[in-house]
């Protein structure tokens, strides 16, 4: 059993010091010039200064939980509870820095296997205790915030001990995992059998397979390996009404696909304990390279051409002009001025960086697929920047969260949000969301940095992922971002985008779910929840919970 229990108190991705965080000093200097950011450093508060109330877990409930999982697996100490008090959104991180009240669970319960998960749920129903399933805790939409709803206590159900690869079927190319396996462990365990999942979201280092399934996660190589939901062949889920086992065959016409109700259910219908996943042979050849295209609309057209011509690279990632500029400035190793001059000389007025990455079984397969993509790109006159740019991106692909910690220390309000739309709506959607963010976050004549990229492309459309950087308000750091987020969500709804392409709904997007699936759709989801969780112990306040009305 894996005893690695992570108490993340600092309000950060990692305890790595700033020097290891890959944010060169010149990048901060650039940000100060560009946004008017001051020079004050505001390091995260130590966990000891944060307000944590006493545990409200009653003695009877605690004894019943101990009976199921053992004394050592019911934690009520301050650090354990604080370590599960929220996920990793900007608001969560700022709360851990003392900017607002934290939702702290009354206890952390660590079941050993699916049977114990089932029995913990039964105890929680009996004692009317809210349950927040906790995977990697990387939710950026309030998904793991320990909300108690109308219950007297709330536990964080940490699945860290459900960390086994149960079996691999090399003939069918499937693998059965317990739901608490973290992504790097899944890759390590599969590598021993010559397989990969190919799911590499930016939260890869910490997130779990169960978390990926219930949030409908999408990894950076989604063009090649698909979204996580496409990898799920079967699920096992503990619910207050008993266990459900769904799927397991490659395809079926046996009525509506109930497995799909579990995928994306965000811990409201039950706790996913086991997953049967499609696996693929581990790639033998990896090739990443970078290009620059001129102008966002033209560059987005190029990605559409790749998607519709079935020539996408496994990783296909297009940055807009702002994100390209920031990437060049942050990368440190690049001779930024020389690069800009080179691009100008090549007639590129508005550089948009395109990273293409192939992960293939042989050099020949790489050559064929690469040639197909480059022939489609040709008419968009890409400027090739070579493998160094691609490799720089690949090596730094998981550094974002660490850079965010340094930016928070430097007084930056830094956050991301994402959506998706059809190709026809994409440009208007990007313009509207960008405008909403700039209007809300700009202050005293200074413009925030608002950047955008496409990292998941489909035949019919693509995702848009926005990152904002601006000086943080000392008086109201949470309100400053929350107002911008509301403006952006309203723009998304107005311009036919989805409220989430891969971050899920959680608490933060719940007010807009109705706009996407309609009141009847909300009622259907609530009816399913009522059947599986009649007393409402599972994840109150999330997805279809007590969504506050839209502003
Ligand atoms: C820096 C950063 C980068 C990110 N990049 C990406 C990205 O590239 N792509 C992407 O898709 N997402 C990304 N995310 C979002 C996040 O990582 C995903 O939502 C991920 O799928 C959550 O997995 P987790 O194990 O951390 O789940 P958690 O955060 O622990 O939980 C997420 C939700 O699922 C519920 N839950 C967790 N496990 C279970 C289970 N076994 N059964 C039932 N309910 C459960 C929780 O209660 C919660 O509501 C990013 C997040 C961060 C912080």
Keywords:
551 residues, alpha+beta, 7-stranded antiparallel sheet, 5-stranded antiparallel sheet, 19 helices, 19% strand, globular, disordered N terminus, binds flavin-adenine dinucleotide
Topology of this protein?
Layout: H1 25-35, H2 59-69, E1 74-75, H3 78-83, H4 90-96, E2 107-109, H5 114-127, E3 130-134, E4 154-158, E5 165-169, E6 174-178, H6 183-191, E7 195-196, H7 209-215, H8 222-225, H9 228-231, E8 232-239, E9 242-247, H10 259-262, E10 271-278, E11 280-281, E12 285-294, H11 296-308, E13 315-319, H12 321-331, H13 336-345, E14 351-360, H14 363-377, E15 383-385, H15 386-395, H16 400-409, E16 412-422, H17 423-441, E17 449-454, E18 461-471, H18 477-494, H19 510-532
Parallel strand pairs: 2-4, 3-4
Antiparallel strand pairs: 1-2, 5-6, 6-10, 7-11, 8-9, 8-10, 12-14, 12-15, 13-14, 13-17, 16-18, 17-18
Helix pairs in contact: 2-5, 4-18, 17-18
The structure holds flavin-adenine dinucleotide.
Structure description:
- The chain has 551 residues and is of the alpha+beta class.
- Helix content is 37%, strand content 19%.
- A 7-stranded antiparallel beta sheet has the order 15-12-14-13-17-18-16, with helices on both faces. A 5-stranded antiparallel beta sheet has the order 5-6-10-8-9.
- α2 packs antiparallel against α5 and α17 runs antiparallel to α18.
- The radius of gyration is 23 Å and the shape is globular.
- The termini are far apart.
- The N terminus is likely disordered.
How many runs of DSSP E, i.e. beta strands?
Answer: 18
The percent range for helix content is 25-40%
Contiguous helical run count: 19
Q: Pairing-aware structural class of the strands and helices?
A: alpha+beta
End-to-end separation? 47 Å
Radius of gyration (Å): 23 Å
Strand order of the largest sheet: 15-12-14-13-17-18-16
In one word, what is the shape?
A: globular
Low-confidence stretches: 1-11, 15-20
Q: Taking all residues together, what is the mean pLDDT? A: 92
**Largest sheet composition:** 7 strands, antiparallel
Named once each, the bound ligands are: flavin-adenine dinucleotide
| Proportion of residues in β-strands | 15-25%
